[in-house]
Amino acid sequence: MASLIAKRSSSSVLGGLRMAAAAAARPYASIAVGGDIVSAAPGVSLQKARSWDEGVSSKFATTPLKDIFKGKKVVIFGLPGAYTGVCSQQHVPSYKNNVDKFKAKGIDSVICVAVNDPYTMNGWAETLKAKDAIEFYGDFDASFHKSLDLTKDLSAALLGLRSERWSAYVEDGKVKALNVEEAPSDLKVSGAEVILGQI
Given 38, 74, 87, 115, which residue is catalytic? Predict the structure, then answer.
């Protein structure tokens, strides 16, 4: 009986180790190149950046992912949060300064998304003078990023659950390129210059 318990314990430990190794080896996101971003986040909607009054007048309408991606060529990038350092000083400006190059490649829209409410995203976009170049969306409850397995616990920086720093080129909902930074403070693979070369 003791040997049977030992075998079971050993088997369950080994199984746990295998599962942990598989999780460590998997790609950063459950969405991968070739996957459908709309199907990966079923029923999820985003909140277009807007003022509070615009929110009230629209009855707090949200935008389904199919309306954002289907039948369009989209470059989307996610970042840890509005008004934060790398996001404000480097990440958004890299896209704002290259929007004409994206348009020349036939991109219908360049989108910035973060785990923030749409009112914060609106104020931030206006501060950066980027609203005419980039569409900003809030993922207020992180449901979009959770669905894609692109969340990051940034409690150490007093931000709580946030988005990884990432970018993707999406054509008719299908992910053609996906880049995820190793650390949220990095801007090595998710900036505009990298994804311009992937389109």
Answer: 87
